[in-house]
Amino acid sequence: MEDAGLDRIVRAEDVAHMGITEVIRHMPRVYGAYRSLVAAIRQRRPDAAILIDFPDVNFRLARELKKLNIPVIYFVSPQLWAWKRSRLRWVQQRVSRMMVIFPFEARFYRSRGVDAKFVGHPLAELPKPTISREEYAAAYGLDPAKSWIALLPGSRWKEVSANLDTMVELTYRFPDGCQYILPVASTIDRDNLAEAITGHDEWLPSDPDAALKLLNIHLVPDAREALHHARASVVASGTATVQAAVIGNPFVVVYRVSSLTFRLAKRLVHYPPEIWNPDWVDADGNLPIAMVNLIAGRRIVPELLQDRFTAENVAAALQPLLADGPERERMIADLAEVDRVLQPPAGTTSIRQVCDAVEALLPEKHPVSGPKSTASV
After folding, report:
1. How far is CA 354 from each of CA 117, 206, 335, rounded to the nearest angstrom?
2. Is the same domain home to 334 and 362?
3. How many helices (H) and strands (E) does the chain have?
4. Can you tell me the distance from the alpha carbon of 375 to that of 39, in angstroms, rounded to the nearest whole number?
């Protein structure tokens, strides 16, 4: 957006902190940045505001914008349909138009009096990677004759720490003949990740490159390319499951957090009937967590949560997805249907529809003609 000509008042990367102690330590700076943003809004009086995700800040900004009679378009809904549903009243009071990227979100909001529109998922609009299997193999030292399994442990270090060891264990418990491709998220330092893999077990060489070679793990920079060329994948719950679905790669969802966090989540997370029948729990009494299953309205990919996330269970779930057969074919067909329902309407894009919503809410005397007629966060 800055490259397109928008003025950046606050740098999001300067105020994005995770963890209770980190947020407390940086609170003065974070609050100062927020006040600067509110002051700029009051001074400049934008004709419209586009708020993107980031609910903890954006709901408060929406309150300030409402006071100034500035229409608010909210793009990428917070997951109020899962938890913190009390915030729904803030959407009803402060948001002029909610633009959502999952079909069930539009149904959820409309049934509660919110002007909501499903615009398609931006990931579903991206073209498939064009690099050939042979080129990909040559670039990352892979054998094109072998089956490749992609491992996606997460994009935050806390997620990687929770998921990586079991994924590494999978590499020497699974039958021979497979190679493993592990995309390194832009938020993760490659050297730290390699060292974490090396420290997985004392029998591994201390040299990271030697350990990776022994485990047949190949670190790569791009998740979409890895998913495109992998025979199947192991994916930590999150946005990567949507990436795998729109690419069409059969996969297993895994998820692990502290036992306390998981118990609290089971008590707090409840899906409305527009999304999921609350009686459709698994053998452990768990609702689905994978977005791809929520989109489909049924369990189309296996979920291995908490204690069920073991190397043995992952290997058992992966096995039928590697060989040509009914399970693999059924999952590929189910993922293709998910990709279909995530596409925007023909002839437009998700971003174009957000632009159209802005134009519809702008005063007639201020059509969208320049970069400073709206404010985005």
Report:
1. 10, 51, 26
2. no
3. 18, 11
4. 13
Q: How far apart are CA 184 and CA 150, in angstroms?
A: 11
Q: Read off the pLDDT of residues 274-311 as tens digits, 9 standing for 90 and up.
A: 888 877 788 888 999 999 999 999 999 999 999 999 99
If asked whether residues 105 and 137 sit together in one domain, one would say no
C-alpha gyration radius of the chain: 22
pLDDT tens profile 185-196: 998 999 999 999
Classify residue 357: in a domain, yes or no. yes
Place of tokens 């489909």: 296
Alpha-carbon span 91 to 113, nearest angstrom: 10
User: What is the reported pLDDT for 365?
Assistant: 46
**212 and 248 co-located in one domain:** yes
Specify the number of domains making up the chain: 2
Q: Map tokens 């931006």 to a residue.
A: 122
What CA–CA distances, in Å, run from 157 to 56, 66, 240? 22, 37, 15
- Residues in the chain, total: 377
Is residue 154 located within the same domain as residue 210?
yes
User: Could you tell me if 196 and 259 lie in one domain?
Assistant: yes
Maximum distance among all alpha carbons in the chain?
71
The Cα-based distances of 31 to 15, 24, 60, 67, 140 in angstroms read 9, 11, 12, 20, 44
- DSSP β-bridge partners for residue 375: 49
Residues 60 and 25 in one domain: yes
Q: In terms of domains, do 181 and 288 share one?
A: yes
- Tell me which residue range forms the domain holding 24: 12-120+344-376
Query: Which residues face 183 on adjacent strands?
Result: 220
The rounded distance, in Å, linking the Cα atoms of 338 and 265 is 26
